[in-house]
Specification:
Elements (H helix, E strand, L loop, with lengths): L9 E6 L2 E6 L10 H15 L5 E6 L3 E3 L4 H7 L7 H20 L4 E5 L2 E3 L1 H8 L2 E5 L3 E3 L10 H10 L2 H10 L2 E3 H7 L4 E3 L4 H13 L3 H14 L4 H16 L2 H11 L8
Parallel strand pairs: 2-3, 3-5, 4-6, 5-7, 6-8, 7-10
Antiparallel strand pairs: 1-2, 8-9
Length: 265
Amino acid sequence: MTDENQDALVLRQDQGHVARLILNSPANYNALSRAMIDSLSAALDDLAQSDMRVVIIAAQGKAFCAGHDLREFQAARGDDDGGRAAYETLFAQCAAMMQKLPALPQPVIAEVQGIATAAGCQLVASCDLAVAAQGVRFGVNGVNIGLFCSTPMVALSRAIPPRAAFELLVTGDFIDADRAQDLGLVNRVVAADVLTAETMALAQIIAAKLPAAIRMGKRAFHQQQGMSLADAYASTGPVICENLLRADTAEGIQAFLEKRKPDWD
């Protein structure tokens, strides 16, 4: 299925069990305006209720996402309160949208074809996996204009080592895709001309696994992060037991023992 409204801020293309969401505002570098946040949030809500197995977030144009819309920031300064209410609402909406990514039942892969800055880098860090084109740059560079990227920091500091995250936040420096891979922000770096194909190939590998196991596993993965070692084992033990008790898991194990493909369809 291809989104019929080609002017929509977020397009959706389905290929088999994989849904591809495409940020479609290249004129402003796919900035996370209020409208873009609302559109992406609504698309994620739809997918949460669907039987799709993997989600890809991609983008049109030169940039993956250049962060928040600075023109919206400046326009809000004309409000009676100097923009406080508008800013509080915007960041609450953005935080809620970002949190939908790890909460989504399906694994989410960022397909990064262009620069990802500030909240755009936050978007990449909030996805479960990321594939980037060679030469792509990442940064949380708000400090260069006097704005510390406090909210992007939340996702970034959970995706890469804290000292590396803090260095990026206080210097405003950019890193290339290879360095981003070294730090763990992206999983794979590929040639630009095969980015979509390589991202889809990764998605199809995941989509071929038992959907129930992937959904249970993703939920458990995010729940145990930040727990103590003992609490993490206490949390995941019941999950793997429930997984083992499933009939389709019994079929998967038996198929392995009999050296055949599992009958999951």
